[in-house]
Amino acid sequence: MVTHRMIVAAAVCAAAIAAKPHGVCAHAFLDHASPAVGSSVPTAPTAVTMWFTQQLEPAFTTATVIDKSGNNVDSGPAAVDTQNPTELRVPLKPLPAGTYTVTWHALSVDTHTTQGHFNFEVAGR
Amino acid sequence: MESFLIAARAVHYASSISLAGVFAFISFVAIPEISPRLGQRLSMLAWASLVLAVLSGGAWLVFVAAQMSGQPVAATVSQGLVAIVLQRTRFGQVWMVRAVLAVILAALLSLPRGWRGRLWNWGGLAFAAGLLASLAWAGHGGATPGRPGDLHLAADMLHLLAAGAWVGSLIPLALFLAGAWQNADPGARTLRRVVTRYSVLAATSVGVLFAGGLANTWFLAGSTPALIGTDYGRLLLAKVAIFVTMVTIGSVNLLRMLPRLAPTAAEGAPRQRAALSHLRRNALVEAGLGLAVLGIVAVLGILPPGLHTEPGWPLPFRLELAALEPAAIAALAIFAALAVICAIIGVATAAAGRYRAMAAAWASLIICVAAGVFTARPAIAPAYPTSFYAPAEPYSAPSVAQGARLYTESCAVCHGANGKGDGPAAQVSPIRPADLTAPHLFAHTPGDLFWWVSHGKANGAMPGFAAVMSPADRWDVINFVRARAAGVLSQKLGPEIATTAAPAVPDFAFETQNGQQTLHRLLRNGPVLLVLCEAPPSAARLAQLDAVQRGSGAAPLRVIVVDLAAQAMSRAETAPSPPPVAISPDVTATLKLFRTPADGPETDLMLDRAGNVRARWATGKGGVPDAETLAKDAYMAAQIPASPENHAGHIH
């Protein structure tokens, strides 16, 4: 009787495992950003938005944006989107033409921290 | 602090598994056969496990809070950061639920014996299983977004539960066997029944662990280089090795000892007692190995998976399976399967004491391996420690443009401005500098190129640049060299969709009326037609391309029109559709690598979903395609799977 129950359990397990998807990853890495990493935009954006490979913890995820001389140009703290917890947004002050650096620290919901930075350029008209 | 976190995790895994194991043992293995004495001992084991689980769980929480906030442990506690973690992170919420489960379990364990019936057993099992399975949220499986994440989570939970059922019930089994040994009290039939039931439980769990572990190894480690080249992968292999040892000890002993538990009258009790103590000792050895596995698990959970770290390749060669004929690959698979079968037979016959059969099995195994090596010979290529590094700079226009500047500075003297190997210094070089536009370049991984650019090649005929260029600079120059070679290779393509693609066009960002877009994101929707123009395209051509994009062909085709001569980068507000997109000078320079002067005013590239060039047209070489051709080709390109055709930089 025990055996019978276990065979059913084993079948369920096997099915769940066979259905396991490709490309699972841990730790939140930057998937893409807007403005795109390293890109040049003609007009100043009002925010930088980043999309990560994992869901983020809002309480411990931050990002800052600085200009060439190291001044902060973000106009508020970075916020994780409530609908889509993989999306992080930093509002920006009006930006003059120049190169800017975004630095992010992410905590994914499995308690792992990652960080990184990238540049983008405002070309100006 | 990291080591404290690992220790807390290891103790917590072990105690949660032990707790679940006690209830699994009571419910699945020994319900009617539990003597009051054994019941008492199991109760004590459960209490000890629960207390340890609560203490180590608390420690885990504090250390994680410290890690999340980057503060020292003392400050984490005094500043109330633990409370923030508990209330505002998913980890904290899971921990609160688990605390409730622990309280319920404590209440169950406090019930007097008279109240404990079947319901108590199953209830305890359910709550202990919940306490164990909910650990999956604290592991790598918990954070993947969407449905794949749910599946990963479910698989991890099953993995934990199977570990609990098998490893967790080893100590209860040892306690049971010790009781039987001391007072020879359960009869031989009971003994056999319990041990047999335990075997069924263990075998089922091992099956689940094995299948799940295999899948997990593959998905998290990603590839062979990641498996043998990263700490994560090596620890995983160590875990698998210990697991296999445990299974071998367990199964071999059961096969040998089970018959001896019910001795014939002639053999008498001493033989049974010897078997009992043997079984008990092996259960304890297995439990010890299980603890070692949990230690490894505790470390694995805080390491980034192999997929995301650079694997150092330990061997001087690698297998390039793509270089083999399909028949040879099939033969390799057959040899591998035969080798596995021989190994299993070898172990089984050794356990059964049939040494001749064993020798035959091992000899066949050696023959299989030799045949495999012989078959794989053409695929063996030289390799370097960095061969499997993923480019640290993405294969994209900003990196390529930066690489072009560095190339002119450092490489053009030998390799020539156009990469043909005809720079001014080539005359005096003992070996002709390589032609960096030859298709041969793509026979090497980006990591191979990284090794040569860092450490030189051909006894210094090509110098190493590790001392003068940062790793990022070296990746930039490699991205440039690869992009230029891809551009040259794409010129060999004609108007027919090619089965072997030219390597990919680097990713780039561009401006549309709706804001910024990138090539990679556009490719997620399907194939893309990249139209490169030297002058503003005519309104008629734009209208034609627009029809293609809107056309209700069998597969959607997105069109990007780029005017490479446009001076300023400005967003087109009102323009014909599809309007030429605006791009930055970096992107212009990168895309020019995919044109030649002979092309005339317009070059069209059909990109499959991996960004590889599949077909090419030019005004000066047979003319540009009409809407009908494009619709047909878009359909064919859409059928091509999106897996990258070459090593062109995909970074995680």
Question: What would a concise description of this structure say?
Answer:
Chain A has one helix spanning 2-18, and strands at 30-34, 40-41, 47-52, 62-67, 79-80, 87-91, 98-107, 113-122.
Which characteristics define this entry?
heterodimer; A: 125 residues; mainly beta; Immunoglobulin-like; four-stranded antiparallel sheet; four-stranded mixed sheet; B: 652 residues; alpha+beta; Formate dehydrogenase/DMSO reductase fold; Cytochrome Bc1 Complex, Chain D, domain 2; two-stranded antiparallel ribbon; elongated; disordered C terminus
Instruction: Estimate what percentage of residues of chain B fall within beta strands.
Output: 5-15%
Q: What's the β-strand tally of chain B?
A: 9
Unreliable residue stretches of chain A: 1-25
Briefly, what CATH class of the largest domain in chain B? Mainly Alpha
In angstroms, what is the radius of gyration of chain B?
32 Å
Q: Helical residue percent of chain B?
A: 55-70%
In which order are the strands of the major sheet of chain A placed? 1-3-6-5
Number of domains of chain A: 1
Q: Can you tell me the overall shape of chain B?
A: elongated
Could you characterize what this model shows?
The complex is a heterodimer of chains A (125) and B (652). With 125 residues, chain A is mostly beta strands. Chain A has one helix and eight strands. In chain A, the strands form two sheets. In chain A, strands 1-3-6-5 form a four-stranded antiparallel sheet, with no helix packed on it. The termini of chain A are far apart. The N terminus of chain A is likely disordered. Chain B has four domains: 307 residues, Formate dehydrogenase/DMSO reductase fold, CATH 1.20.1630; 66 residues; 82 residues, Cytochrome c-like domain (Cytochrome Bc1 Complex, Chain D, domain 2, Orthogonal Bundle); 131 residues, Glutaredoxin (3-Layer(aba) Sandwich), CATH 3.40.30.10. In chain B, strand 6, helix 20 and strand 7 form a beta-alpha-beta unit. In chain B, the strands form three sheets. In chain B, strands 3-9-8-6-7 form a five-stranded mixed sheet, with helices on both faces. Chain B has 22 helices and nine strands. Helices cover 59% and strands 6% of the residues of chain B. The chains are: A mainly beta (125), B alpha+beta (652). The interface between A and B is large, with 51 and 67 residues.
